[in-house]
Q: What sequence folds into this?
């Protein structure tokens, strides 16, 4: 009986250690390249500043366009809103080509809403 109890204890310890190892795995980081088509501030419990990135478009497709036209473009191409911090928001402009890195978590909306881990201006 003692051997069975010892074996069960060892198995439980091994299982517990394997669970700890899984909790430290890194998040997958995704990348989205595109043009900043829209910038907005969402007021609520906390103020959130977002940029709308649309892939496969050029600067001329978004500069000076109405919100309706921008939304149409977003529906035709890969697009997403990214929450950025205040400093980044002030440095960015509509029409800039950027690379956005994010962890893969998003709110299910159309276009989806994500948190930007990093935003790099390409041109």
A:
């Amino acid at each position: 009986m003692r051997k069975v109890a010892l074996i069960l204890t060892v198995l439980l310890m091994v299982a517990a250690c394997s669970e700890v190892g899984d909790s430290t795995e890194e998040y997958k980081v995704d990348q989205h390249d595109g043009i900043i088509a829209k910038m907005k501030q969402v007021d609520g419990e906390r103020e959130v500043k977002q940029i709308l990135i649309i892939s496969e478009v050029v600067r001329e497709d978004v500069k000076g366009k109405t919100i309706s036209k921008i939304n149409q473009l977003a529906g035709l191409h890969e697009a997403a809103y990214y929450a950025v911090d205040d400093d980044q928001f002030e440095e960015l402009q509509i029409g800039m080509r950027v690379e956005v890195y994010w962890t893969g978590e998003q709110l299910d909306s159309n276009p989806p809403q994500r948190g930007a881990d990093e935003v790099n201006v390409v041109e």
Remarks:
- The radius of gyration is 22 Å.
- The CA atoms of residues 1 and 10 lie 14 Å apart.
- Residues 2-23 form the longest helix (22 residues).
- The first strand starts at residue 30 and ends at 42.
